User: What shape does this take?
Amino acid sequence: MNPKDLIKRIRRLEIVTNRKVNDLFVGNYKSAFKGRGVEFADIREYNEGDDYRTIDWITSAKQNKIYVKTYQETRELTTMMLVDLSSSMNFGSVEKTKRETALELLAMLCFSALKNNDKMGAIFFTDKIEHFIPPKKGQSQMWQILREAITRSENNHYQKSDIEDVCQFLNTAFPHKSICFLISDEIQPTPEAKKRLHVTNQKHDLVFLRIVDPLEKGLSQGGLMIACDPETGENMPIDLSNKKVRERYNALRRQKEESLSKLLKSTQIDTLEILTTETLFKKLFWFFKQRQTH
Assistant: This one.
């Protein structure tokens, strides 16, 4: 993609998302995350009415008095965008592909961070970390993230995705709590992924924005369809008029959904499922509002 086309695409994303960000959920974004208000400040003696969960048991034992930890509101958020570049994101049975939906979603989150004067960074990944943009503030940082997202989306190959390396990187390289948006269509429910996701969500505030195509919700009656495995490039004919084929596919899909649901429940990761046919800003608006009440 040449520079002029790239700039046009970023400008188009800016026009589509900027007004919606201003009108709908800047305030919700600002108050919807666990990243604020949890920075350690000091230790003092216990006062009546203090939350027992803030008791510093080690200091209390040493001093033979009850001491509590105090916290101060953090001045800013650090927002990390974890963007899946694997080829399954290229799929689309309707007007928008999962990749296009992810780009629009990424732009909205970047504009929200920009409006709140927060740091933003990005990790682009497949089955490994492809590119890392350290968090910074400002419009130039937002443009860099969107430029990388568009360029790498255009140039991706048949690759799988694996969140394990990303989690390991976040767990070791980021000492302070961050808001981490995982923009992907899938998480492989392996024991190692479960372990690392749990640690990441304990250390940071991890939100899984899962992008789903309507066709992935189940097959209905139809004719012959040529399906391509996006991560291998293999083509396979599927006869949708065959009831057993549809039932087999839907059974496998339910099994896969159940495995993912168990993983997300065990790791306590907040998840928002977004269909490529849905209006993104309304979906995010209500998600942020709901988070404020928890």
